[in-house]
Predict the 3D structure of the following.
Amino acid sequence: MNRVEETFDRLFSLPHVTVLRDVPLALHTRFGIGGPADIFAETSDPESFMLAKKIAGASGLETVVIGGGTNLIVSDDGFRGVVLKLVNREVRATGASVYVESGLPLQALVDFTVDRGLKGLETMTGIPGFAGAAVYGNAGAYGHSIMERISRVRFFDGEAVRETDNAGCEFRYRESIFKRRKDWIILSAELAMECADAGPLREIADNILATRNKKYPPTMKCAGSIFKNYLLAELPAAVAAQLPPKVTIEGKVPSAWFLEQVGAKGLRVGAIQVADYHANLIYNDGNGTARDLVAVIQELKRRVTGRWGIPLEEEVQYVGFPSSC
């Protein structure tokens, strides 16, 4: 019996875990791209998930944990190893404090807080993915990010369950310690919200959702904005001096502005296209491939670096590619 078969059997013996062979990861990514995983294991039970993570780790097979697949680019060749997915979805409120498990869709968390008159997440309506991924990547929109509301995070470090406070998360723009410590898996979080009138919060959320759905229709196979925006304070002075006055918003410069200057809009390779109305939006217009998606991303990075001398950094994560990708 080889390692894959042995690991499959051990995972299959766990309670509350669905274990499958050769699952196309295109079914688990918003781009709708990705070849098969040797083993795919999904559970809503954190205890079973932690056991599965230990089994996968001890197997010697490469292991990756995914959430909603919003920001994943998976190789056309798939993933030679174990893919684990935790879909725990409990959410509850005690006064202005909210407890949420990592597998709850972020939109469900936003709606939960808005409907209860809890202020703080309404600007994040329409952002796809799971709550855990939002903490992982410090998701945000319209000048706010989830770090503003996190009070504690509970996570599995590979051996035991631990907790950390907001400072321990080491949040930065679209960053957290969990991005650097990929072996630490977020299980749940506590958020400190503010009591407010649910009516105005719902109006804000609905208006933002309508705007977002025009840019990123729910049926569009995309990851939203593909590149991080720039922090004005970190740009070279020579580049900052060339920016039009109204480009900078709350200390951030949209990557889309730089992409527009290098003719990104409408760029297409196969079924992968840059939107003709938003230079930082790449989508799969049909049966696109990871090969073509990566080619478009690399071309955009080449153009911006060539003209401005500054690197573009993806918000997406790569699975099944060489580490140099």
